[in-house]
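In this section we walk through a basic example: taking a raw amino acid sequence and producing a predicted 3D structure, encoded as discrete structure tokens. The instruction is simple. Fold the sequence below.
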Amino acid sequence: MLRVDVIREYEIDETEIEKEVEEAIGTRLLEDIEKVYADSIRHFEMGSILKGKVLAFMPSDVIIDCGYKSEGIIPNEEFDNFSELKVGDEVEVLLEAIEDDSGLIKLSKRKADRIRGWEKVITKYKEGDIVTGTVTRKIKGGLLVDLGIPVFLPASQIDIKPPGDISAYIGKEMTCKILKIDEARQNIVVSRRRLLEEEREELKLALLGEINVGDLRKGVVKNIADFGVFVDLGGLDGLLHITDMSWGRISHPSEMVNIGEEIEVRILGIDKEKEKIALGLKQKTESPWTKVDESYPVGAKVTGQVVNIMPYGAFVKLEDGIEGLVHVSEMSWTRRVNHPSEMVGIADSVEVLILKVNKDKQEISLSMKQTEENPWDSIEEKYPPGKKVTGLVRNLANYGAFIEIEEGIDGLLHVSDISWSKKIAHPAEMLKKGDSVETVVLSVDKEKKRVALGMKQLEKDPWESDIANKYQVGGVVSGKITKLTNFGAFVELEKGIEGLLHISEMSDKKVADPQELVSIDDEVEVKIIRLDAPARKLGLSIKQVSKASQGEVKPEAETTPQ
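The resulting token sequence is shown next.
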């Protein structure tokens, strides 16, 4: 780079040079003539800024006369005002080189302008000064700003926050602060960010000195996060937390504000030491909980909208800022609700009853089921004992089957009430889920919300007939094997009448499994060896029938039923 202190300017009078040459022609030798020209050339020092005149225009260059024996050529693009340039115009140019062989001189208009511009800038400005210029172009690491000469604005110094695409600033006027002037390198670095930070610091101090808790203040939404919004109050950002944006429920701050939007907020808290300000938006209006007792008295029925569902219940919005909880236990009189989503969905409109209001905790307890009549209140009148009902098998348990006799009301059909005579270990032996069955109501417990049902009671108990006269000990009868156990088999003598054929009474042979001797649906002839009518028990034997036919067993005396 060229140092400013070595730049000189010379004005050469061409007429005087020619006069000296004419004198030399008459009085000196040829070498003296060359010496004269050499002496005049010494005035043209490299790096000098010379004054020249426009002699002519070529397609891509301008011919300049600087007073030397040869003219200089400068490309058109080095002239900012080339369209206005005309022959005879005086311009300043930089002498870069003189070609010894050809005698041509190399000139630069652009470099001359830069040197003149640099002289003006360092004369006019110093580090720390505020300057304004136009952004001309983007270069590696930042922008060039025209102050008469191009100065460097680093990308990190354009704005307080990352600027994004810095090309958008090209052509715009920008005010900056001079950070550094390097005269040796003819380089100037400026910063817009430093200027903004200083201005913001002044505004911050002024803001902290004038605001008070409770004030209403306008600001611009600067940033939006999940937890809230940062609002630029002019010098300092305040935090508007999501919980202070609305009396009602919102999922995200972006539902209420946008970046760049001007909003009015209330000052909730000020920490001058930490330079933090808490803001509120909902506090601009009165809390709806102030008169909640008047708006929602206990016992009132109101309509609301489901806004949230949790495992333990559903939250219902009664108005903006007022929500109540319907506990899962308050959703239905009859249904077994495992999760609130079985009863309601988000945005559903539901009718609820106000159960309890806690103004201090801002809680309201609601009920859905209590807006309707409790069906258990009239269950005894609707299902008196002895009434026949038809329902669907809803579930099976070891001890019985649950029969839905109407929506939400189940009755229990105990395993012992399925059949008069069959020994049923599990209701699945007779029923399956989804079956439609007819039952009779045995009893109703309103307080415990229980209904007992029976199937066998639909028919007459076969043991209530004169069973002792029909089946006597010692008698031989025919029957069918209906069930096998590890201790024997059950034999059906007639519908509803079964007897036990113990494994020890099947044969004289010792066997471990009754299936070695009999199978389901086998027709067998058995002898009645025991009879207990009250207990509904019959003891049967096959081996005694065989012995009697062989004459090995004498007829037994008839026994009295146990």
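Looking at the output, two observations stand out. The CA atoms of residues 311 and 339 lie 6 Å apart. The first strand starts at residue 49 and ends at 57. In the next section we compare this with other chains.
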